[in-house]
Amino acid sequence: MAWLSLFIAGLFETAWAIGLKYTEGFTRLWPSIFTILAMIASLLFLSRALRTIPVGTGYAVWTGIGAVGTAILGILLFSEPATFVRLACIGLIVAGIIGLMLVSP
C-alpha cells in the first residue's frame, strides 16, 4: 500500500508541476486552486508512504516520478524537444526509480 501511495503522490507532483505553468504566476484563480490542491494531495500521499518506505528512497522515487511525468507532459503539451538524449535521460531516471523500488523494503 505504501508504494501505491508513493506512486499517487508522484502523479500529484506531476499535476502540480504542470499546473504551475497554467497559473501564470498564481494570477489565474482556477489553475491556482487546482495546483495548490495537487500540492497538498501530493504531500499527504508522500507522508503516508513514508510511514513505511525509508525517507531517502521515498523522496527519490517521488521526485523521480514527478520529474519523468513532468518531462513527458512537457513534450506532449508544450512541444518541448523530444531528442534522443533527452528521452534516454528520462529512461535513466525510470531505471533509477525501478532500481530503488527493487532494493527497498
From TrEMBL:
Signal peptide coordinates: none
Record bears the keyword DNA damage: no
Membrane topology: Multi-pass membrane protein
The keyword Cell wall biogenesis/degradation is assigned to this record: no
Cellular location(s): Cell membrane
TM spans (from-to): 27-47, 59-78, 84-103
GO molecular function, one term: transmembrane transporter activity
Main location: membrane
PANTHER family to which the protein is assigned, alphabetical: GUANIDINIUM EXPORTER (PTHR30561:SF0), SMR FAMILY PROTON-DEPENDENT DRUG EFFLUX TRANSPORTER SUGE (PTHR30561)
Protein name: Guanidinium exporter
Species of origin: Candidatus Nitrobium versatile
Gene it is expressed from: sugE
